[in-house]
Amino acid sequence: MLRPDCHYRDVAWRLLCGWNDQFLYSRKIRVFDYARFAEPLRDRIRARAQEVCAEAGIEIEHINKPHIRKEGVVAKVLSRRGDHAGLVHVISAMEACHSYKPWHDKASGRTFLKPDSGKCLHYYFCFIDEKLGLCYLRVPTWCPFRLQFYCNGHLRLNRPSGSNIAQKPSRPFGFRSRVF
Question: What is the pTM of this model?
Answer without folding.
Answer: 0.74
